[in-house]
């Protein structure tokens, strides 16, 4: 009989990643909020890419 492997649900990985990227989340949110009446494609692309990279790195480490 083999011991059961602990399973981590995808939402748990995402929640952990989000908690590690608060600075990037705040920067992206501020960018969107600064001109939310005229949001268009690539308005905050630089901030979004930093947030995305942070999430991907945090999920990979989990």
TrEMBL record:
User: Which biological processes are named by the entry's GO terms?
Assistant: mitochondrial respiratory chain complex I assembly
Extract the InterPro entries matched here.
NDUFAF8
GO-annotated cellular components: mitochondrion
Indicate what this protein is called per its UniProt record: Uncharacterized protein
């Amino acid at each position: 009989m083999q011991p059961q492997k602990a399973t981590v649900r995808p939402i748990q990985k995402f929640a952990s990643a989000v908690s590690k990227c608060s600075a990037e989340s705040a920067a992206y949110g501020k960018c969107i909020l600064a001109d939310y009446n005229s949001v268009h494609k690539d308005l905050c692309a630089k901030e979004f890419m930093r947030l995305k990279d942070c999430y991907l790195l945090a999920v990979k480490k989990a």
